[in-house]
Description:
By secondary structure, this protein is of the alpha/beta class. It has 17 helices and 19 strands.
Amino acid sequence: MKLLFTQDAxxxxxxxxxxxxxxxxxxxxxxxxLVYFYPKQELKSEYEKAGVRLIFLDIPETYHFPLxxxxxxxxxxTEKPDLLISCxxxxxxxxxxxxxxxxxxxxxxxxxxxxxxxxWKDKKGLKYKVVYWLDRLTAGIPVHWxxxxxALADSHVKTLGLPREKITVVYRxxxxxxxxxxxxxxxxxxxxxAIFSIENSFNQExxxxxxxxxxxxxxxxxxxxxxGVTGDVIAREVRPKQSSSDKTASSADDxxxxxxxxxxxxxxxGVTGDVIAREVRPKQSSSDKTASxxxxxxxxAVSVVSGLAMMRNFISYGRLLERKGFQDAIxxxxxxxxxxxxxTLTIFGEGPFxxxxxxxxxxxxxxxxxxxxxxxxxPMEILLSGYSLPTDHFSLITANYFLFPSWYEGFSGALVEAxxxxxxxxxxxxxxxxxxxxxxxxxxTFKVGDPQDLFSKMKVVxxxxxxxxxxGEEARKEAEARFDIxxxxxxxxxxxxxxxxxxxxxxxxxxxxx
Length: 514
């Protein structure tokens, strides 16, 4: 079977990364090429590394539909695919027209809730009416649809008039941590044995590293993150070298007594006692440096509940768009900071809403606690290993809690990544999120667009770290059972094969039949 999969560009975003993961896992008897139209190619090297064939049609931004349609029609007639698959609005419209012209069947995809009431709140004028009616008038061309959430299927049945029986739900998937943390090549034979072997070597390295940690002076300080179930190493954090005044110290017990030293604490799961994170906190003021960490825990809002050190770093990531709800997170965090002054909020990503977020941070006086570092190429690495900030206040931010405040989405890959990493989650209660997480079991949810409700949930996670650590572990188990990319890719390919028309028997072979 031969496929042409079309999308707008190769930007580093959720849908594009999901297609990379899926296409790279199609079976050998499915020949798939990815066609992209516009010159944004952030993921090009990753697609090439995964062995996905790329075809660039080199269409100038932003639309140029007639040119794009003509080039795609010529490509289809040259490649002679059995099936087309399209994703994202511009590619959808272009590919639908090309499918209609060439007669090659098209499988459509539903990856965003673009026509929900909240999505259309600020979309006024002729442009958005044209977008909607182009979508609706051509929606009858695809022979079938894949939606990445049931809520998306329901929404498009209402807004585009799609037949419900022509929609199959296949969730977004992400690699299980055991497959990603060692960057193993994919093989059909011996993969489990290879993982087991490397895990053992890493465990031995962990033991020796832990013994040496308190003895080395002036070396780079290292911490290990360990899963609560297997004890496997899932991340190694490397911190900046200590200053010369700190190098004379020989153990972690001295950290609270040194001038300008960085205070370190271990977060331990309430169930197993395994180390799951090492948190780096702000440098203490001169009045605090003479006191021990235990004596000053209440003054610095660093409480310990049943031996579990309170973790106070919130992170989030995504395109900096108004609909992502990051302004709600900042507003809620401003209230949290009044109670817990050593918290941080780090939001990764870029987008047209950056200036508004920067102004909000400035107006609320949060410059030393809220950070917008920009794009990241590998979000899972941040979730597991932390992020070094270019600031005097913090040397490393670990992902203690994940915020997902989006107003509307498709089925979020970022949410699945946080689940896979076992990071405790606070998410908005939009229907797509509730298909991934269960409130009170695998995450805490808050009323979408309500910063006050988000603030109350952020307080809860800070006050109940043991329960949140257990909730993160439940989320990890849920994600591995439901959203393993190997399982998702098989489901996706199964739909493709089911709706793809059978290839005609070659004429030259038919001529040989008696």
